[in-house]
Specification:
Blueprint lengths: L1 H22 L8 H4 L4 E8 L3 H17 L4 E2 L7 E11 L8 H11 L6 E11 L2 E8 L3 H14 L18 E5 L7 H10 L4 E7 L1 E8 L8 E7 L3
Length: 232
Amino acid sequence: MKGGKAMENLYNQLWEDNLPKYRIGTVEVDPLLSSGADNRFGITLLFRPDGAVKKSIGSFLQELERLEPEQYYYPASDLHVTVISIISCHPGFSLDQVAVADYAALVKESLAAAKSFGIGFRGITISPAGILVQGFPATAQLQVMRQRLRENFKSSTLMQTLDSRYVLQTAHCTVARFKAPLRNPERLLQKLQEYRHHRFGSMDVTRVLLVHNDWYQKQDLVQQLAEIELPS
């Protein structure tokens, strides 16, 4: 699949670009992870890995935590793949600033013809700020959904910040972020290389969730706004 190859190239580029930084322990530490003063919120359309995939990712994170206990590892409840970030998380955003029903209606309209799709989670890659599990959709359905959502929201009068940070082209799941400098970059990198092509499992995506969320998608801060079923 052409799209799958393009996605693989993006993951590989991330790995190659950040490998030299990880070797010397140069990672982006997020001070807000420990401050308790993070008020960045937004609206996101996402789906969550199933139980088996979460369990597999959890085993990987336990190994990382033994090496780097001071970092932030996503609990199973918070793991997700972003379909599209409609309003990127920013300080001070709250739901009383928007008409939630209009957002839910436009998402449902945009996905009226969408179908369920398979996705495989295979291998990991790295960014300056965290560790990602690579997702590979089995069809072009995710790309089609994203394009339809972009077109409809950009032509609407609803507040949106689509693609303001970057144009989302992958199907990754962020699993770890950095709260502190690395203790032992060499050992961490060795473990990451062990999992570079590890198979975490596959699943069918049969529903997507529209949520109001904080930057890290913490369960106790996420509010579900709508659920859209994807028929087979």
